[in-house]
Design a protein that fits this description.
alpha+beta, Immunoglobulin-like, 4-stranded antiparallel β-sheet, 2 helices, 8 strands, 15% helix, A-crystallin/Hsp20_dom, HSP20-like_chaperone
């Protein structure tokens, strides 16, 4: 099972509840690293939108069943004499942490990055997969022993 946490999202929800929505002069900032997660067969797939992030600016780490995704969106280089008119795209380092359940195989995680989308595949651990259990017929075993 895949578990996620975003402590700031919970804080944002609490703040909105206490203030009755957004306060004048503020706006709800979108998550700079939105994700989707789903199960496909024997693996979980987590997809992160990271437009404008260079592949070398993405870092994935797993420590004690916690998958950490860090990405840095760097400012676009502007030449001398150019004055920025609007700067709404969030810049800087962003991170998300996913807590991986014991049923996932953190040793075999795979990741790919294409067209601003990071896809992480986390296989279900072999011991967590359903398996058939054979039932022994003790009556026939007793007959074979007595014969």
């Amino acid at each position: 099972m895949l578990m996620r946490t975003d402590p700031f999202r919970e804080l944002d929800k609490l703040t909105q509840q206490l203030t009755g929505g957004s306060t004048p002069g503020t706006w709800s900032r979108p998550n700079p690293m939105p994700m989707d997660a789903y199960r496909s067969g024997d693996e979980y797939v987590v997809v992160f939108d990271l437009p404008g992030v260079a592949p070398d600016a993405i870092d994935l780490d797993v420590e004690r069943n916690v998958l950490t995704v860090k990405a840095e969106r760097r400012p676009v280089a502007v030449s001398d004499g150019v004055e920025m008119q609007v700067a709404e795209r969030p810049l800087g380092v962003f991170s998300r942490q996913l807590f991986l359940g014991d049923t996932l195989d953190a040793e075999r995680i795979e990741a790919a990055y294409h067209n601003g989308v990071l896809t992480v595949k986390i296989p279900v651990a072999a011991q967590a997969k359903p398996r058939k259990i054979t039932i022994n017929d003790t009556a026939s075993e007793q007959k074979q022993l007595n014969a």
